[in-house]
From TrEMBL:
It comes from Flagellimonas chongwuensis. One of its GO terms (molecular function) is xylan alpha-1,2-glucuronosidase activity. This is Xylan alpha-1,2-glucuronidase. The active site is at 286 (proton donor), 360 (proton acceptor), 388 (proton acceptor). The keyword Lyase does not apply. It catalyses: Hydrolysis of (1->2)-alpha-D-(4-O-methyl)glucuronosyl links in the main chain of hardwood xylans.
């Protein structure tokens, strides 16, 4: 398989007993009549059920002569079906799948309040079939726990993708709106199948042209393809657009003409896209324009845009990824200082989108201190699905494991058990609006994500956005079964490999709490020695602070005191060397090279041992994959095999470059567990990658 079908491959069910049972249980299909979403369901059933059962689907009236699949909104079900089903606890996107027996016949009923619930339920049923699970006695109830479940595409209008490693943008702006690529439809299907209901089409480093009539017409065409699948379109709004495309002299959010310009723009957009989601905004961050250019605040800018969208029920998603050059003592502290004081002052249709950690999508970060610190403002989680800092699309790193770790972290804001997940789904603060965004890893590569296992990150993000309390192991199980095979031997080995892959990348890149020691600009490979960039916080040396006395960033009271932004119980635990988990040691503490770790070894030895462990884990992954040959098609087996080879090379590169560099300070021998470096420090420093993929133009 070339992987294009993702987890939605509908080949005939291979197990004969299972196939026979399903064929008997699903002899015909009754579908309520309806609009575009019902048509999408019908198409999916023809393809999906038709493919899996390897026969033409018979659509029939209700009741029919045999066992039947029933797809209908609750309101349209016959009375005796209604009596068996309680939809009181479903929300408008939720569904119930229930197996009901009536006069000797079995009915598998998919129902909900709205059509979109039926679509989600249909995809769930197809998943069940692909996983060979039993339908007998099935009684499932599902409602998404998060309102806005969104992909953020960092796609530029020239089709390059910032931090994209799987080809070019799938949005072909040149041929839109007239040419509808099949990929747009398959994109919508894939997203709906995991419950994603929103997409921001354009880069947060925005181009104002997307808001001109010429482009809005193209956006409208996409919105029309996506609508039946419940997928709402958002656009990134460049704050200076009123000047760039509107001919105004200013973009000051308190200026009457500017206010009116945005109101008119909103009216124009909603005229052609009545369900437009709203704006995603990056302002006063990394050179992007924003309200601070006019002496105004984030709050001023946000509320001005929010007011323009209010008449149409649109949202403003304003990003908290800000750090200014004027306060460079600790970048980790800045977003909190700029946003938390305004808690509760944002309009009702505003969400503040916060990256999972306080720095920038590192292999491991503690959760962002804003989670839990703004009880009166909807905070939206931002994860990065594309692997900017985790080996691009060439490394196998199963990200849902990372997402889960963040979501299950305890903020202690409302006592023990106040997890980030509960902040995000609103249950701890009864938030009115909730959301989760993932920076997409999708491109024009045949299999969408470059690495075949990159599909699992898209899949897992969607599942966690639907239910942030899900565990990553269950998600890996689903994905493997629907993407590759139900063979237990395969599932067991590959699931284990996926679950361990996240710790492997932490070990060979950023062990013991190290972070942001990537080569600058492109972030490909190690660059811990870089220290010559104009702004201090752009330099890796700023983050590891290695010198002859030791290594690490002191964020306790004796240092930047970033820990004080967390709840007291958290601060106490992570600020105390006795209780701080070693995975976060150098994130919060600066320690001498001979500091004794829990293992009894020195910090220096511990670092080398971790780097080596990361390399060994990749070797283990290679072994595991070799043994999986019987279960995987040759094409994908070969792809993953070659990619793991690159991953091993690069894991060693990281180990050798970092340890050789840090040795210039520690002046200690490598621990005996560590293999000798393959090259010199000078060699690693000399490597340059001017054409590494995903680079952001004209930036650092
Ligand atoms: C950083 C990326 C940069 C993005 C920025 C952001 O290096 O390309 O523009 O985040 O999230 O991780 O705005």
């Amino acid at each position: 398989s070339n992987g294009y079908e993702l987890w939605l491959n509908y080949d005939k069910i291979s197990d004969d007993t299972v196939l026979k049972t399903y064929r008997n249980q699903l002899q015909s299909v009754f579908m309520e009549e309806g609009g575009a979403t019902m048509e999408a369901i019908m198409m999916e059933l023809e393809m999906g059920l038709g493919g899996l059962l390897d026969r033409e689907i018979r659509f029939d009236s209700l009741p029919s002569s045999g066992n039947q699949l029933v797809v209908s909104k609750y309101g349209s079900l016959p009375k005796d079906f209604k009596e068996d089903i309680n939809i009181d606890y479903l929300n408008s996107e939720g569904y119930i799948i229930k197996h009901i027996k009536k006069s000797g016949r079995g009915y598998l009923v998919i129902t909900g309040k709205e059509d979109i619930g039926l679509l989600y339920g249909t995809f769930h049923l197809l998943r069940i079939l692909k996983m060979h699970q039993t339908l007998e006695g099935l009684n499932l109830e599902e409602s998404p726990k998060v309102d806005i479940r969104m992909l953020n595409h960092w796609d530029n209008l020239d089709r390059t993708i910032e931090r994209g490693y799987s080809g070019f943008s799938i949005w072909n702006w040149q041929t839109l709106p007239d040419y509808i690529d099949q990929r747009y439809i398959d994109y919508a299907r894939a997203n709906a199948s995991i419950g994603i209901n929103a997409t921001a089409l354009t880069n947060v480093n925005a181009n104002a042209l997307i808001l001109t009539p010429q482009y809005l017409e193209k956006v409208q065409a996409l919105a029309e393809v996506f609508r039946p699948y419940g997928l709402k379109v958002y656009l990134t709004a460049r704050f200076s657009a009123p000047m760039e495309i509107g001919g105004l002299e200013t973009a000051d959010p308190l200026d009457q003409e500017v206010i009116q310009w945005w109101k008119n723009k909103a009216a124009e957009i909603y005229k052609s896209i009545p369900d437009f989601g709203g704006f995603l905004v990056k302002a006063n961050s990394e050179g992007q324009p924003g309200p601070q250019n006019y002496g105004r605040t984030h709050l001023d800018g946000t509320n001005m845009l929010a007011d323009a969208l209010t008449p149409y029920k649109g949202n403003v998603i304003w990003r908290a990824f800000v750090y200014s050059e004027h306060d460079a003592e600790d970048r980790a502290k800045q977003a909190y200082s700029e946003f938390v004081p305004d808690d509760g002052k944002y309009r009702d249709n505003v969400l503040i989108q916060v990256k999972n950690g306080p720095i920038d999508f590192q292999p491991r970060e503690p959760f962002h201190p804003m989670f839990g610190a703004m009880p009166n403002t909807p905070l939206m989680m931002e994860f990065q699905i594309t692997k900017e800092y985790l080996g691009f699309a060439t490394h196998l790193v199963y990200l849902p494991k990372l997402f889960e770790e963040v979501l299950q972290s305890d903020t202690y804001q409302k006592g023990k058990g106040s997890t980030v997940a509960k902040m995000v789904d609103g249950s701890l603060n009864t938030k009115k609006l909730t959301g989760m965004a993932g920076v997409s890893n999708i491109g024009t590569d045949t299999n969408w994500t470059g690495h075949p296992f990159g599909q699992a990150d898209w899949y897992g993000f969607g599942r966690l956005a639907w239910d942030p309390s899900m565990n990553s192991e269950a998600i890996a199980d689903e994905w493997l079964r629907t993407t590759f095979s139900n063979d237990e031997e395969f599932i067991k080995s590959v699931k284990k490999m996926m679950l361990e892959s996240r710790e492997a990348v932490v070990n060979y890149m950023n062990p013991l709490g190290l972070h942001h020691i990537f080569d600058t600009s492109h972030h490909y490979g190690p660059g811990p020695w870089v220290g010559n960039l104009s702004r201090p916080e752009w330099n890796p040396v700023y983050y590891h602070k290695a010198d002859e006395d030791g290594i690490g960033f002191d964020r306790t009271k004796t240092g930047s005191n970033a820990l004080s932004q967390y709840a007291p119980a958290f601060e106490e635990k992570f600020g105390n060397l006795e209780t701080c988990p070693e995975e976060y040691l150098l994130w919060f503490h600066h320690l001498p090279w001979d500091y004794q770790l829990k293992s009894g070894r020195t910090l220096w030895d511990g670092l080398g041992i971790k780097y080596q462990q990361g390399v060994d884990q990749v070797k283990q992954m290679i072994n595991t994959w070799e043994n999986m040959k019987p279960y995987v098609d040759e094409y994908r087996h070969n792809q993953v095999r070659m990619l793991l080879g690159i991953q091993l090379k690069e894991a060693k590169w990281w180990r050798d470059a970092c340890m050789l560099y840090f040795q210039t300070f520690s002046k200690m021998d490598f621990p005996k567990e560590m293999e000798s470096p393959e090259n010199t420090l000078e060699y690693y420093k000399s490597l340059k990658f001017p054409y590494a993929p995903g680079i952001r133009p004209q930036w650092d």
